[in-house]
Design goal:
Layout: E1 24-26, E2 30-35, E3 43-48, E4 54-63, E5 70-73, E6 76-80, E7 85-91, E8 99-109, E9 114-124, E10 148-152, E11 159-162, E12 167-175, E13 184-190, E14 197-198, E15 200-201, E16 206-211, E17 218-227, E18 237-247, E19 254-262, E20 277-283, E21 290-291, E22 304-308, E23 311-312, E24 315-318, E25 322-326, E26 335-343, E27 346-347, E28 351-355, E29 361-362, E30 375-378, E31 384-386, E32 398-404, E33 433-435, E34 438-440, E35 442-447, E36 455-459
Parallel strand pairs: 2-9, 11-18
Antiparallel strand pairs: 1-3, 3-7, 4-6, 4-8, 5-7, 8-9, 10-12, 12-16, 13-14, 13-17, 15-16, 17-18, 19-20, 20-25, 21-24, 22-23, 22-26, 24-25, 26-27, 26-28, 29-32, 30-31, 30-32, 32-36, 33-34, 35-36
């Protein structure tokens, strides 16, 4: 299978006897679709507990207009950890004209907790003057949709989730004619700075995705659903917003959004390359900062491991907010692989990263990935110095440019091993070096002897050059 293996994170949170999470209400929202005069099938709401004990609840229905079209049975009850309660929601559309109706089921629990469940009912005109259920057969063109009506079914206003753990998002989307959104897009956006999440269609109007909160803060989730425009009708849109809390979580490692970078350039969006040095930024990535002190490099450092495509990466440095690692040469190129950090027993949510044959980047003097490059000049007597604008290289000097991301090498060396002095490990691909806008012949391009993961380029000068980094 292409791009295998795929990693799935499963979180098991075992609560102490003193911990309680309150009642769980699922789904968090409902959408009913029906034609005029035809009652839809009932849908079930489950109320459960994940801790010992019991709670009682009472319920109340409120409507956006004077029509009272919904029943919730049983209206009151007791919930225990071994006996959840099923509340049956049954609309009654008798007397309702075609249109969109909304209601809220308010559940009040002993102890004061409240859960509000939004419910949307779309009543469409009957086709050919006959009332029938829209779910079972195509409808004549008697209704022109003007908006989408998304309903959040996995989380609701007042949610509380832990940073770093996967949180499912699921949205049911229909238009105001009762037709499910199957050809369009649904995107979730987050006010805490997490990147937008494109949800996948499960068909039938249900869209799903997994959100891994990275920032612990009170957040609002805005979810927008938009159909694809056609040649005969403009696109229609709809949106829903719920708000809740992301709680700090010291347990799982968290990879920052866009936090997998080339160690030399730190450029966003750069792919990984076999043999390259990568830097991962995040939180709870490892124990106290530790530098590898011997070769070959270890695959476990400061209590942490990094897997890319299921393969352990050799580690140069590991600390709570940063890990420096070497990409294995065995990784297939022109694929997308998943990166996962393992800190003790806890795993990060997988982050996807593209793998390319090459992504060259030169190390810089200030370590930022920008500005003057690290170029070392070697005098005829064998002494060396770092080239700077104040101390340029001179004719007759040999210079070496240090970099990463040159890709595969003509050697049987494994990532993380010390590069031998003989034979050398030259890059497999042809490497071109440009200095001052001019292509400079390359005498050698490949791994730096005695080190692991560091590439070098040695230009071949045929005439006098005077070099200075800029």
């Amino acid at each position: 299978m292409a791009n295998s293996p795929r990693l799935v994170t499963v979180v098991l949170n075992i609560l102490s006897a003193a911990q309680t999470t309150g009642a769980v209400v699922s789904p968090a929202g409902f959408v009913f679709t029906v034609a005029v005069g035809v009652n839809p099938q009932a849908q079930n709401l489950t109320v459960s507990l994940v801790h010992g004990g019991s709670v009682t609840y009472t319920s109340a229905l409120t409507y956006s207009d004077s029509n009272q079209w919904l029943s919730a049975t049983p209206a009151n009850g007791t919930v225990t950890s071994i006996k959840p309660v099923t509340v049956v929601l049954q609309p009654n559309v008798a007397g309702l004209a075609a249109g969109v109706y909304t209601a809220t089921l308010k559940l009040t629990f002993s102890g004061g907790a409240v859960r509000n469940v939004p419910i949307t009912l779309t009543v469409s005109p009957a086709a050919s003057g006959e009332a029938r259920a829209i779910q079972t057969q195509p409808r004549a063109t008697v209704c022109t949709a003007t908006q989408l009506l998304p309903a959040m079914t996995a989380i609701s206003t007042g949610f509380s989730v832990a940073a770093g753990w996967p949180t499912p998002l699921e949205i049911d989307v229909v238009d105001d004619c009762g037709q499910p959104l199957t050809n369009g897009s649904v995107t979730a956006t987050f006010s805490n700075g997490d990147p937008p999440l494109a949800l996948s269609s499960l068909q039938g109007g249900t869209w799903s995705g997994t959100w891994s909160p990275r920032s612990a803060a009170a957040v609002n989730i805005s979810v927008a659903a938009q159909s694809i425009a056609t040649s005969t009708a403009p696109a229609i849109k709809g949106a829903i917003e719920v708000s809740g809390q992301v709680n700090p979580n010291s347990e799982p490692p968290i990879i920052n959004s866009g936090g997998i970078l080339n160690s030399a350039s730190f450029a966003a969006g750069e792919p990984a390359t076999p043999g390259a040095l990568m830097t991962i930024f995040g939180a709870n990535l490892a124990g106290p900062g530790t530098v590898a002190t011997s070769l070959p490099l270890p695959t476990t450092l400061a209590g942490s491991q990094v897997l890319i495509g299921g393969t352990p990466m050799p580690l140069l440095y590991a600390g709570p907010g940063q890990i420096n690692a070497v990409v294995p040469y065995s990784l297939p190129v022109n694929t997308t692989q998943q990166v996962i950090v393992i800190n003790g027993p806890a795993l990060s949510v997988p982050e996807s990263d593209a793998v390319a044959p090459g992504a060259p980047a030169i190390f810089t003097l200030d370590g930022s990935g920008a500005g003057a490059a690290i170029v070392v000049a070697v005098n005829p007597d064998g002494t060396g110095y770092v080239v700077t604008p104040a101390r340029p290289a001179h004719a007759g000097d040999v210079i070496v440019v240090y970099c990463t991301g040159l890709g595969g090498v003509r050697s049987s060396i494994h990532a993380g091993e010390a590069t031998p002095l003989s034979p050398l490990a030259p890059a497999t691909d042809v490497i071109t070096l440009t200095i001052g806008g001019k292509v400079t012949p390359v005498e050698f391009a490949g791994l730096t002897p005695t080190l692991a993961g560091l590439y070098q380029i040695k230009p071949l000068f045929r005439r006098a050059h005077r070099l200075a980094t800029r």
